[in-house]
Description:
Layout: H1 6-9, E1 14-22, H2 39-47, H3 55-62, H4 66-78, E2 82-84, E3 90-92, E4 95-97, H5 101-121, H6 123-135, E5 163-164, H7 170-193, E6 199-200, E7 206-213, H8 223-227, E8 229-237, E9 242-250, H9 264-275, H10 278-281, H11 285-291, E10 294-296, E11 302-304, E12 307-309, H12 313-319, H13 325-342, H14 351-358, H15 364-378, H16 386-391, E13 394-397
Parallel strand pairs: 4-7, 12-13
Antiparallel strand pairs: 1-7, 2-3, 5-12, 6-7, 8-9, 9-13, 10-11
Helix pairs in contact: 3-4, 5-13, 5-15, 6-7, 7-15
Amino acid sequence: xxxxxxxxxxxxxxxxxxxxxxxxxxxxxxxxxxxxxxxxxxxxxxxxxxxxxxxxxxxxxxxxxxxxxxxxxxxxxxxxxxxxxxxxxxxxxxxxxxxxxxxxxxxxxxxxxxxxxxxxxxxxxxxxxxxxxxxxxxxxxxxxxxxxxxxxxxxxxxxxxxxxxxxxxxxxxxxxxxxxxxxxxxxxxxxxxxxxxxxxxxxxxxxxxxxxxxxxxxxxxxxxxxxxxxxxxxxxxxxxxxxxxxxxxxxxxxxxxxxxxxxxxxxxxxxxxxxxxxxxxxxxxxxxxxxxxxxxxxxxxxxxxxxxxxxxxxxxxxxxxxxxxxxxxxxxxxxxxxxxxxxxxxxxxxxxxxxxxxxxxxxxxxxxxxxxxxxxxxxxxxxxxxxxxxxxxxxxxxxxxxxxxxx
Length: 407
């Protein structure tokens, strides 16, 4: 069979490109340096994923001139996405999920089973702790001008607990807390277990990219819903803006991959709003209303439309109950099953990465998104308003909390 040009006629496409690691935080909204969204880039990476290929091999399979392939591979190699191996062949250095229909259907059943057990055994504890935080976090006047503050809980005497939740909506708060728990526990494990697999860039960033190959076959479930769980952390620590932020994009928010939302300047402007520094970023306040960080009230004022905490991320996470030992044991059994099911679907040079991903911790996106769905379908979680969809699963961590009377 003549394979020349076969991928030009029916190119593959990536679905759900994600990244994690330690990214340097930029001060302006610029296009991401590492762009893997073009069809040509994706097909080059795919062709050299299961088996190393020469530039000529790839050129013929894609029916694209060699000089174009050379330029593209030069970019990919420079940024660590491909490595040159023996005999002038190139091998892809990102992780691609290229799974069969049978494997995906079996994985869905395993993940749903574990998600239901999480909902039964763990989420009630998380909800109860969330209620304690909210009940002890009623707005009270303080020596700092009646700011929206929280009283320390009896369960936490060594750290002052300060949490702001828009309109004191427990449902909105618990959406974010559940996603924070899953995403941050996941990130901690990834950073400790997967750092040896990170791509290192010239700007000091260390990270990993993962993508799923878009398949044409029909599944019994919505694969997009269960794989779209993208946590992101941003840190901006200086004397004027001692803050950080976390978000987790899911199919339940309206942000999707809008890179104009989760950028430092928006959080800087929100912090200026909290402090009343209207002259510093005043021109950005209209933008904050547009993206949903601020919501106008009938009285002509505005309120901050996200969870804000004077806790650090780790301090907030430490308030949440740990996963019980019985669930950890069950998780180990299920992970062995997933590992045996999926390991043959990955090429030899990605086997160790696969082991680190799936044997040492569960595929967090697939579990967390199923947990959210089960809780929403059962009524434990309530549907979000249009304003809430803009900032759900987003928390800003900073030393000050909003004053409800600020404009």
